[in-house]
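Retro notes (design track)

What went well: tokenization of the new backbones is finally stable.
What didn't: we kept losing track of which sequence belonged to which structure.
Fix going forward: every design gets posted as structure first, then sequence, in one message. First example under the new rule, 406 residues:
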């Protein structure tokens, strides 16, 4: 019997090794298959993502506005309406914020493009004078000629097309089908998210029963622990990123107004939106803002970049640690790794999801490593006598079959 188990273990190691070796030399095929699978499951993935995001404000509203009585009981009416009303308020708040932001932002962007269109000749002339008067360029390329008229015409043509695209979109069949597909996926995902949020306790009980039907109680508890850790990590990440993005966008807008930079509101909203993307979001927002400011003055654009660098240092060293703290608990190196892999697999969405997902894996591996070290130290007699056993990793107390949502 022992020899049979040993043979099966060795066979599993060989299978895992061969699989990893094949995956290493077919990484592009694996990423392509993952992308196709995510496209097929995109409505469910969108719904799950929306449910995780909407669960944060919905749980807060339900917890603060629908409190139980002294005996920790809800009346029949309150118990029946607390979840639907909390979800309805959450949806109204989210759609209201998005609609208000778009109604203010889109006219501002159209107006910005219209102003920039008239300022292109002046900007190109300034750049042309700088290049013509540059001694360094004259030494490197004495025969170089800067055709400002041609460049002005091309830039104005491109911006005119962009402005017209913002005002009236003359879509082709492929564009229309892509938009319709995205809208349908979003609507299906939204209904999927609403169902998940309304029935989340029932879904948890069903998943727990399915799990315990095939695995032991101890393994089911560990799986519940991992799922709860993922939920908590993602919820804290969403809440922290949202607050931090609002603060960063507000500080950008206020700072631009104080220092006299143009398009303060537009750039502030852009920076707030891009701040949801970890690490690279600030760079994207700074680049877009510098592009808007550049058409007023190149000097102001450089000063804006300097202002954003200083603001980012303040944000990274003082604001972000205080607002988000160590909720995600992932070192900077692994954040960069998660963003790189997530972006390669699924673009911006992958970058957004990969940080909390990698954080969960990091926490589990850290718990396992601590458990192994404590166990080895206990075997060597290095731990105190009152420590009979080191705590096992990824185990929760079995007070209830399915832990309640926080």
């Amino acid at each position: 019997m022992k020899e049979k188990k040993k043979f099966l273990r060795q066979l599993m190691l060989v299978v895992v090794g061969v699989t990893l070796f094949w995956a290493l030399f077919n990484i592009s095929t694996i990423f392509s298959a993952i992308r196709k699978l995510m496209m097929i499951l995109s409505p469910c993935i969108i719904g799950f993502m929306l449910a995780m995001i909407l669960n944060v404000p919905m749980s807060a509203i339900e917890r603060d506005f629908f409190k139980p009585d002294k005996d920790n009981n809800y009346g029949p009416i309150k118990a029946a309406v607390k979840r639907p009303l909390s979800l309805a308020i959450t949806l109204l708040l989210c759609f209201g914020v998005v609609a208000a932001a778009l109604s203010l932002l889109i006219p501002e962007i159209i107006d910005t493009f219209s102003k920039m269109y008239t300022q292109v000749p002046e900007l190109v002339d300034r750049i042309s004078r700088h290049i013509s008067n540059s001694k360094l360029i004259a030494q490197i390329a004495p025969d170089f000629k800067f055709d400002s008229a041609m460049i002005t015409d091309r830039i104005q043509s491109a911006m005119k097309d962009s402005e017209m695209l913002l005002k009236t979109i003359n879509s082709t069949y492929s564009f229309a089908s892509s938009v319709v597909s995205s809208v349908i996926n979003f609507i299906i995902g939204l209904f999927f998210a609403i169902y998940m949020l309304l029935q989340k306790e029932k879904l948890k009980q069903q998943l727990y029963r399915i799990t315990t039907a095939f695995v032991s109680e101890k393994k089911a508890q560990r799986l519940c622990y991992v799922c709860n850790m993922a939920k908590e990590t993602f919820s804290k990440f969403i809440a922290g990123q949202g607050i931090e993005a609002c603060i960063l966008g507000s500080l950008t807008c206020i700072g631009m107004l104080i220092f006299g930079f143009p398009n303060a509101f537009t750039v502030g909203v852009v920076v707030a939106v891009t701040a949801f993307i970890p690490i690279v979001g600030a760079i994207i927002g700074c680049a877009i803002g510098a592009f808007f400011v550049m058409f007023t003055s190149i000097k102001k654009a450089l000063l804006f970049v300097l202002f954003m660098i200083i603001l980012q240092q303040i944000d990274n060293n003082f604001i972000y640690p205080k607002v988000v703290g160590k909720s995600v608990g992932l070192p900077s190196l692994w954040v960069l790794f998660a963003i790189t892999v997530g972006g390669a697999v699924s673009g911006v969405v992958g970058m957004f999801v990969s940080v909390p997902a990698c954080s969960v894996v990091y926490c589990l591996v850290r718990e396992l490593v601590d458990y192994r070290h404590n166990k080895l130290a206990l075997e060597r007699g290095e731990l105190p006598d009152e420590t009979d056993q080191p705590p096992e990793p990824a185990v929760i107390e079995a007070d209830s079959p399915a832990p309640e949502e926080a």
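Added context from the reviewer: DSSP finds 13 helices and no strands in the chain.
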